[in-house]
Each structure stands twice: as C-alpha cells, then as structure tokens.
Protein 1
Amino acid sequence: MRILGIETSCDETGVALYDTEGGLLAHALHTQIALHAEYGGVVPELASRDHVRRIVPLVEDVARQAGLTLNEIDGVAYTQGPGLAGALLVGAGFASALAMALDKPVIGVHHLEGHLLSPLLSTAAPVFPFVALLVSGGHTQLYLVRSVGDYELLGDTLDDAAGEAFDKTAQLLGLPYPGGPALARLAQLGRPDRFHLPRPLIDAPHLDFSFSGLKTAVLTLVRRQERNGVFDEQARVDIACAFESAVVDVLVSKSVRGVEKTGYSRLVVAGGVGANHTLRKRLHEEATTRKIQIYFPETAFCTDNGAMIALAGALRLTKGARNYAFTVRPRWSLTELRGVETNI
Ligand code: KG4
Ligand code: ZN
C-alpha cells in the first residue's frame, strides 16, 4: 500500500510517499524559517498561507521523485492535530479533496503518534514494546508504547516543554529564531562546568519534568552577568553549554529510570529535541552501560516531516481505519487514540 503523507501542523510543509512493502519512497520539506525569522517566532496566519502555496508543488515533487502518478497511490494521510488550527486545515482540506478526487481512503493522523513511530522508518527499527521519550517544541513526555495506538503516559512536563525551554533560552541569549538548534550549535563551543544551573525534578520519584525554573535561572544569570559588565561572547557560549547540559541530564536520567521502571529494554527518542547532538551522545553512553537498546529517527525525521505522517497513516490505513470527517484537532491528547494490531 502506497500512502501519501501530508504534514502542516506548524511551520514546515512536509510531504512523503511511504510504501508498506518498500518503505519510504520519497520525501520533501519546505521550512518557513525565513518567513517567520523577522518576527522571532511562528506567525500562524503567515504559516497557513505558506502551506497553501507550497503543498501542491511539494506533492508533485514527491510523486516525481518516486516515479509515480497520483493515481498510483492507495491512500492519503494528513496531520489532524495537535497544532495550529489554520495550518492544520490546509493539510486536512488538501488531503481530503485529493483523496475524494482519486476515490482513495484518507486518514487524519495524530502528530505525536507520527513522531513516536518515526524510528520505524529506519532499517534498524525497534520492535514493540518500548519506552519512548517524546521531546518536541510543545511536549516533553515519556510513554510506554505497547503497540500502535497503545500509549501509556509515564511522565509529562508540568510547565514548559524541553524544546520551548531551548527556544526561550536562545532568545535570552540573543539568538535568532529558531532558537533550539542555534543554542545547540553555540553550546558545542562552551564549557559545561563554568556555570551551574539546576536540574529540576531530577531526583523526584515520579517521571514528570519541569523546565520553566531553569529558564528563570538562566535569566537571573544573564542579568547578573550584564550588571557586572561581563556578559561577553564567552559567557553566552558557556551559559548555552550549561543550559544544554542541565536539560540533557534531566532527560537522560528520567528516560533511563522510565525504562528501568517498566522492565523493558528498548528506548526510543523522538521529536525535534531528539536531533540534539549532546542528548544523543549521552543517551548512547548510558544505554551502553545499562544494556538498553536505543533507537533514534534519522536526524531529518526528528523534526517535523511528512514521512512520519505517511508511516503512521499507513499503519492505520492497512488495518482498515478511515476518516472522511475533515476536522482538525488543534488540542488532542495522544492517550485518546485507539490501538490497531500490526505485525511489527
Ligand atoms: O518536533 P518538532 O520539530 O516540532 C514540534 O512538534 O514541536 O520540535 C521543534 C523543537 C523546537 O523547540 C526546536 O528548538 C527543537 O525542537 N530543536 C532542538 C534541536 N533541533 C530542534 N532543540 C535542541 N537541539 C537541537 N539540535
Ligand atoms: Zn512535531
């Protein structure tokens, strides 16, 4: 079954073709970074309009790459939520209209399910069950994943998500949008031990996260450096490094405890912050020591993309799931999903 996947939940238009036999056939992405940069963050109305402009050329591009006509696809999957309502509506409207015109099934996919299942795009894919650390711009969560759609929440953020903390801290350090990757690049040059920042909830018995206090600690530190006239380039670099190191410590510690608590041996890391080099390195080290098998999506599939939506849609469409409702769900909890039986 060949499924066209459409992702338009935020500031990236992602399109891909996934074949249940042959894997990922083609994918294409347009990022709106340049469009939103001058505003310092995503402007929802501009995001929706840009998705409208990009979606048709991207679909044509993907079909061309795969050497297929649209008549040769067997179904369409789109991100139904969570995300920006107007942006989601572009993907939902396009996918539903295309499916109707082709007389093919269509399904709305949960964006976080896409992230969670994205390591299955790799050749060395994990098998169920596993523990998943989902670290995106809006979510920092640990899940116990038994099968497609069977997700038990083990831990959640009580305030800011890790990605959000990266973005806000980057702004404090004067870095341009999108802050997370820019802060990570800066941190590579710094010393993690010059400034000590808190590791919120690291010793708490539960698996919840909290990152807003860390952001405040950075603000206090920056202000102190400014007052003392020593907020120079080296200070920015070392603060970025101290911040990244604090977030990574918390994420690593909670993930390892999550795995140990469930008695499972597999850990999957997904979502934009999963692209972070230091996080990947530290998790690899811990996993090796503790005999945990660890799985990351390829870096390109950590951040938003159409491939994860095509994959998640394919896993549901092959089991007969359909959805012609053409509704979007800007707010939608992953634990509301119903499971499907799969062979993976
Ligand atoms: O999963 P994603 O692409 O979009 C959402 O669904 O939210 O995640 C975006 C988040 C942003 O907060 C971005 O700053 C963060 O992921 N991010 C990173 C890195 N690359 C993206 N954070 C830290 N280090 C990175 N290399
Ligand atoms: Zn995402």
Protein 2
Amino acid sequence: MRIAVMAGDGIGPEVTAEAVRVLEALALPELELVEAEVGGAAYKRHGHPLPEVTLEAARSSDAILFGAVGDPSCDALERRLRPEQAILGLRRELGLFANLRPAKVFPGLEGASALRPEIARAIDLLIVRELNGDVYFGDKGTRRLDDGRRQGWDLMSYAEDEVRRIAHVAFRAAQGRRRRLTSVDKANVLETSQLWRDVVCEVAADYPDVALEHLYVDNAAMQLVRDPGQFDVIVTGNLFGDILSDQASMCVGSIGLLASAALGERRTAHGAFGLYEPIHGSAPDIAGQNRANPMAAILSLAMLLRHSLGLEGEARRVEAAVARALGDGVRGADLGGSAGTRALGDAVLERL
Ligand code: IPM
Ligand code: MG
C-alpha cells in the first residue's frame, strides 16, 4: 500500500508529522510513504499549488494523508494560483465527492464545548458533505455592469446524479449508525435546493429503514446549537456543509479534534481511495510554534486506516489512544492546556 503524505502549509507539516509517527508506530507491513508538496509550499517551489508531480503521486497512491493549505503571503495571487486551489483541485481531479466529517464529544471534554455541557454531551453526528459540485465549482467571475459597477458572481448548481450519489453515501452511513438522516438545503428559496430535496426523496425509497427529515440550512444552524444530540447523519451540499462542519467543531470543543475523509468511486485493494485531512486548516497565526493540536490529524489517519486500508482494528486503537490521552487530562493550547504539538503526539503514542 502506498500513502501520499501532503503536509502543505502553516501548521500542516507539524500536525502531519505527528500522524506519521503514529502510523510508523503501528509498524504495518508493506507500507510505502511518498511525500508530495501542495499549497503555498508547492507554489513557491514549482510555481503552482498543485503541480503535476503531486497529482501523479496522488493518482499512484491508495490514500492521501493531507495536512492543510493556506498561506497569507499568497493572498494577492490570482485565484488559480492560491494555495486553496490545491485541495479543491485534488477533490475535483480525483473525483472525491463524499466528505465525511464526524463530530463527537470525547468523554471529559464536555466542559470545553461552546455549548453547555449537558447539551454538548449528546453530540455524536456525522456530516456528509458533497464535495465536487455546488457554487464551489460553478462558473464564476467578476464583470463590469453597463453602468460601470463591478459585480462578482458564482453559479450554484447540482445535477441530479451528483445529488443521488451523495444521498446514497449518506443513507448507507445512516444504516451503519442510528438510522436517522437529515438533509439540509434552502429549498424555500433556491431551485438548486428544490432539486436536491426531490432527488433525496427519490433515493429514500431504497432505504425504508432510515428515517429521513429535511431542514432548511438556517434552521439546521440553529438546531445544531440548540439540540445537537438530535442529529445522527446530516447530508448537505458543498457550501452549507463547509459552514455547518466548522460550527459543529465548536460544539465539540475544539476544531483541533475534527477529522475528515474525502472519498470517491475508486477502490483500493482493501477499501476506497481517499484523502484524509483535519478540518482546521493551516492556522498561519500559530504555525511553527509547537502549539497546534495534532489530534485531528491523528484521527484523520484513523479514518485512512479504516476506509482506505481496511484496518478497522488499528483505526480503533488509534482513536482509543486519542480518547485516553484526552480522558487523562492531556490538553493542548486549543483546550486551555499547555501541551505542545510534539507532547500531544507523544501522549497519544504512549497510550497506543
Ligand atoms: C474545508 C476548507 C476548504 C473548503 C477551503 C480551504 C477551500 O474550508 O475543507 O472546509 O472550503 O472546502
Ligand atoms: Mg471549511
């Protein structure tokens, strides 16, 4: 099995290094790691945030362990050269349309949530975010109107097959959990959302064992802080999923704890090809200071073991080691503690 390691920018290299240490500690046989540059780091060396060599490394691997992209020194570049284009390009080029973003409160961390502990305690949900369509990938541009005013525009659209395939992923995920699915849209205003809702209802016929409900995204945002325990699986489009998953992270206590998987249709010998990344991003303000929490990266590695390598036992061992470290009171700066990135990695390794 070959894993492409793409550490990227900001805190990406620090947190990814800890995930790699955990992977190495598992001493899996016949595992090859290949490093590849992405984001601002790749732009500075190759003149492009997603150079062909990196895409090639991705294509010839079974999974990608991804850090983060985003670098303020690149903000003035034209959009196609900005670091964020690397992750968007990988998602699109590799057909990674299904983004799984689990959010669960670790025992002992109820008090860290932005919500009251008795509300936070019940959080155990999975956001299934569509990742290849929506306003992210529609035509976009800026133009001059006839009267000279500048206008920016982005086209939001979903084709029915795009909705259908993500709906199937979400229904199947619900079948493996508490069999409840909430589809989030804005069908009271957007045609894109009305089609989304119609197609999700059609797909529901194949899953009579899953209870389906629909929420408008504004109501979903409210319910997520009012009573997050009501959610099992949430399925939604690219833009709404981006926003709701950051919101969910604060309900859990720290964005430094949320992992994600991006999956497509390509299969590997033991599972699905996928890209695994912490959802926190590059956090340039704390980069290089040994302050980032590597747990989201380590939990992303656990998802890689589960979904791409078919190693459920190892995935659970890694998750249990993180949970034990947190349960023992090990805390990084994101949770009001003083353990640095390396010390947090050590804490997980000791318990592994
Ligand atoms: C995420 C990030 C990305 C997104 C950015 C970096 C392009 O916010 O993975 O949630 O918007 O999808
Ligand atoms: Mg985001």
